[in-house]
Specification:
heterotrimer, A mainly alpha (289), B alpha/beta (375), C mainly alpha (291), A: mainly alpha, ABC transporter involved in vitamin B12 uptake, BtuC, C: 291 residues, two-stranded antiparallel sheet, 13 helices, 2 strands
């Protein structure tokens, strides 16, 4: 019974990981920018929702505010930080350090403005009840899964049915096309940032209701997204999403076998093992460079 | 490329020259420097504000009362609750600001800075951390907070009276969590209780649903939470959201607003130093009233502790000023050991040979977002 | 004041060692490790244990630290041989996160989160010495070795690997051995830095060896300029003195000091990367994409 409980809980967490990871993978795949500040989109979306909620806005308006905050941040990063760096042909690590700097700045600004420490949205949706003997589930379990499924269906429809979506996918699968696309790659890059960052918002809103927020939460989100993107195989959205789900489940189910303090390390053990034994991930093509 | 280069030189220049701009010669009417080594940013920044607010109010009261001939001023150094940052800050306080008295918090930081203060013979006072190994770190390291073993010891009879005999412990595996684990393990059976399960969590953990599932399996009467900072609120919400309906209990670190303000914390029971803000001494009442007037909130344990720590300095330095003696680590320590008992918020505070204050412990419950003493 | 500056100088020297050794693998071999703090930590724990259990001889502590960190650097060399670029960054991040958990749990060796306390003052041949001269000597030695290796055959092999791995392999260079050696050298150096750090603070705990520390060291290298000899040192001086310098600004309210420091620190990192992506010392004309 413990196993089933842990599995279900893992799926709830994993659905949220999958969403943020897919956003990161979309950006990384299409632009080859290691968007280390992706977690900040998550933080901003969460706090935007929190402020809206506390101001008495309806949930959908708050969620919209969250999506908007995440998207605007992603776009701003692309225009103000990444593009100038890429113009100098800055290395992958230059991007990494710049993004990290932004993450530090925003995290502290959020701390100054929103207060440091824990903040959560109080809603009965996160309160679990016993649905079966020994199995506790909260309404948010179904919401998380529903939101994840709907968004993935919508995203894959966009990526396969629309012109811009197909272009994005082409970029992800063949990075060399980035140059061949010439001018329009700029607009595609903005599109990727907008979409990818927006993907972090629903997970942030749900997290505000469940585990709650703090100004440093983006850090963890970022690490998980990065791990999921690698495990899933760079360039594969489906892979990243599946890997995010798997990491969430692994982190939870591991408690069946090991003591509680090891839960966090499990995700990274999985990541490390994948890199050593299957560097191409679930679906990726082997790329060593 | 000269622009950025010049900017870089200017930056470097100011950074390195800054130490020389304001030399501190603590003479005549120069203020007494009260150094603070608190986390002012990062995940534990909430504590830094609580600590500083208490100290600042004590300085204001001392000024209003004319306790001291020389003013006091706070010199804040941010530790982010990290030992390395703490040592850098402590070195600055000791060597540059010539701090007369340093307020510290957090067990790991305290342990890291204690050797620096010991070598410089600078008094360090802790009013926040409760790791039992903070006793006797140095002759110049004092505690104005009862350490965790005292709190937990006083808690056990209450738990047994409430018929909370099987206790599950969710703890961060640091010196503090370790101490509480050790105590529950040895002392609970003596009073007829038992430790139903122990669940160690990393300090950075965010997800507590799976932990809650494991805790449920242990079928405890109550769950003891031994963490600190914002994580406590996350644990409490995580446990309550995931089907833990048993009472949640803990120690004084729970008295911060990020815990008390969440609805899930309703009914959480924890120990702290005894403070009676309405019926207590005049000093206690004045502290409570003025604090409330300034911050529009009831003072918490930490506000009071750092008020006390700062007030203690003012009382000691007053003695020394009367004798026209120099105010330094040795004279402060000698005075502390001579006087021993001080009028502080919460009543009389008595110090032992190591500089640890003993105080009565009370049991509190969080009711409607407020901390209410219940025993 | 002197004591304060000496303390800062010691930390600068120690972080200079870290940055210089990391620069060796990043700048000369193209291995982007975000796990340098792991080996810093291993060295610190090993050095501290030597001082606590045997005797506080600084040279012995450094030697043991170098052996432990250098030996365990295989954990890092293994993924470095398998993958490159982002993949390796992710692998090293994974290693860093696992190591943080291990450091917190392996209490017998590390003291857990509580850490190791009361590490005795260091001696050399029985005479008590300050850590500053030791750290400066170690830094000088490492910079000297880096310069020598860079110009020698080994350095050229590494650079050929960095610039075109398959070409280097085709030319008959033993890529695996060269990479492993480079990683071992860098990690052993980080270990020495760790031992000195432990002796300097006389206290170590896991919080000094987290991912933030790794990123800080990485930032020092990048800001200073990868692949340059002096860049990492400049980066270390800048990033360590920046917060310390900000601590002297009087007009910031006490409760916001920390946040303002962090914001300035973050802004400096970002702005430098936007306007001088090759680093302060690095040659902008050679600011190539290395990943």
């Amino acid at each position: 019974m413990l196993f089933l409980q842990l599995l279900l809980q893992g799926i709830q967490t994993g659905a949220l990981y999958a969403l943020t990871a897919a956003g990161f993978a979309l950006i990384f795949g299409a632009t080859r920018i290691f968007h280390f500040a992706h977690g900040i989109s998550f933080t901003l979306a969460g706090y935007a929702f929190l402020f809206a909620w506390n101001a008495g806005w309806p949930w959908w308006a708050g969620s919209l505010a969250g999506v908007l905050a995440a998207t605007l941040f992603g776009l701003a990063m692309e225009r103000v930080v990444y593009r100038p760096i890429q113009r100098h042909e800055g290395s992958f690590f230059t991007v990494f350090v710049a993004a990290f700097g932004v993450a530090v700045v925003v995290q502290n600004l959020v701390g100054m403005l929103a207060g440091r420490g824990f903040a959560s949205v109080d809603t009965p949706l996160s309160r679990a009840t016993e649905v079966m003997p020994e199995i506790f589930l909260a309404p948010i379990f179904w919401i998380a899964i529903g939101v994840a499924v709907v968004l993935f269906v919508a995203l894959s429809a966009f990526l396969t049915r629309t012109h811009a979506g197909v272009a994005l996918r082409a970029l992800a699968q063949n990075p060399d096309l980035l140059r061949a696309y010439g001018l329009s790659s700029n607009r595609l890059s903005m599109l990727a940032f907008a979409l990818g960052s927006a993907m972090a918002a629903p997970a942030a809103v749900l997290t505000a209701m469940t585990t709650g927020l703090n100004e440093a939460i983006g850090h963890h989100v970022m690490l998980i997204s990065m791990a999921a993107t690698i495990v899933g195989g760079v360039g594969s959205l489906r892979g990243a999403a599946l890997a995010g789900l798997m990491l969430g489940v692994a982190e939870s189910v591991a408690l069946q076998f090991v003591d509680t303090q090891w839960a966090e390390a499990v995700s990274f053990l999985v990541l490390f093992a994948f890199i050593i034994f299957r560097p191409s991930g679930f679906f990726g093509v082997v790329q060593t460079r | 490329m000269t622009g950025p280069l010049i900017a870089r030189r200017a930056l470097l220049g100011t950074a390195l020259a800054a130490p020389f701009i304001r030399p501190s010669f603590a003479q005549g009417s120069d203020p007494y420097v009260i150094g603070t080594l608190f986390p002012m940013s990062g995940p534990n920044g909430e504590y830094g504000k609580l600590f500083t607010d208490g100290a600042a109010l004590a300085i204001e009261h001392a000024r209003a009362d004319g306790t001291l001939r020389r003013p006091m001023r706070i010199q804040a150094e941010d530790t982010q609750a990290l030992p390395q940052q703490g040592v850098i800050g402590m070195n600055k306080l000791v060597n540059v600001d010539r701090a007369h008295y340093v307020l510290v918090g957090f067990t790991a930081v305290s342990k890291a800075v204690a050797p620096v203060g010991d070598r410089a013979k600078t008094v360090m006072v802790n009013g926040g951390a409760v790791g039992p190994d903070l006793a006797g770190l140095s002759p110049y390291f004092w505690n104005v907070i009862p350490l965790a073993h005292l709190e937990t010891q006083a808690f056990l009879p209450f738990l047994i009276r409430r018929n909370l005999k099987r206790i599950a412990l969710v703890y961060v595996d640091d010196p503090l969590g370790d101490a509480i684990l050790g105590l529950l393990r040895t002392e609970l059976p003596k009073v007829g209780g038992e430790l139903a399960g122990t669940f160690s969590i990393p300090r950075t953990a965010q997800q507590f649903g799976p932990v809650a599932a494991r805790v449920r399996q242990a079928r405890p009467d109550a769950v003891y939470v031994a963490s600190f900072g914002a994580q406590q609120a996350q644990i409490i919400k995580g446990l309550r959201d995931n089907g833990i309906s048993q009472p949640l209990i803990g120690y004084s670190a729970l008295s911060i607003s990020s815990v008390t303000s969440i609805p899930e914390a309703e009914g959480v029971i924890f120990t702290s130093q005894k403070f009676d803000y309405t019926g207590g001494s005049e000093i206690t009442r004045r502290f409570a009233t003025d604090f409330k007037a300034r911050h529009n909130a009831d003072p918490g344990t930490y506000n009071a502790n750092y008020y006390n720590a700062t007030r203690l300095f003012a009382l000691l330095a007053r003695e020394l000023e009367r004798e026209n003696a120099a105010v330094n680590g040795d004279s402060l320590r000698a005075t502390l050991l001579r006087v021993r008992e001080f009028d502080l918020v919460g009543g009389k505070g008595t110090f032992d040979d190591q500089g640890n204050m003993s105080a009565e412990i009370q049991v509190n419950e969080i009711r409607g977002g407020r901390v209410v003493p219940i025993a | 004041m002197t004591a304060y500056l000496a303390n800062l100088a010691t930390l600068v020297a120690i972080f200079g060692i870290l940055a210089a050794t990391l620069n060796f693998v990043v700048g000369f071999a193209g291995i982007f490790s975000v796990a340098h703090a792991v080996f810093f930590g291993l060295g610190a724990y090993a050095g501290a244990q030597v001082a606590l259990q045997l005797f506080p001889d600084a040279l012995l502590a450094c030697l043991v630290a170098a052996i432990v960190a250098g030996g365990l650097s295989l954990c890092l060399a293994l993924p470095a041989l398998r993958v490159r670029g982002e993949y390796f960054v992710a692998a090293s991040l994974g290693l860093q996160m696992m190591a943080t958990t291990l450091f917190s749990e392996a209490k017998a060796f590390t003291g857990g989160i509580g850490g190791l306390v009361a590490i005795p003052r260091p001696t050399v041949a029985g005479v008590e010495v300050g850590v500053l001269p030791l750290a400066l000597a170690a830094l000088a030695l490492i910079l000297f070795l880096t310069a020598r290796l860079q110009r020698g055959a080994f350095g050229r092999t590494l650079q050929s690997i960095r610039d075109a791995e398959s070409a280097a392999e085709a030319l008959g260079k033993n890529v695996a051995a060269a990479k492993t050696l480079a990683v071992a050298f860098a990690c052993a150096g980080a270990g020495i830095g760790g031992a000195l750090f432990a002796l300097h603070l006389s206290f170590v705990n896991v919080e000094s060896f987290t991912m933030d520390q790794s990123v800080l060291v990485m930032a020092m290298v990048i800001i200073g300029g990868t692949g340059t000899l002096w860049g990492p040192l400049i980066g270390a001086i800048l990033l360590l003195s920046l917060p310390s310098g900000l601590a002297f600004l009087p007009f910031i309210p006490a409760t916001e000091v920390g946040a303002v420091q962090q914001i300035v620190y973050g802004l400096a990192m970002t702005l430098l990367m936007i306007f001088r992506p090759a680093g302060l010392v690095g040659d902008l004309s050679k600011g190539r994409a290395t990943a």
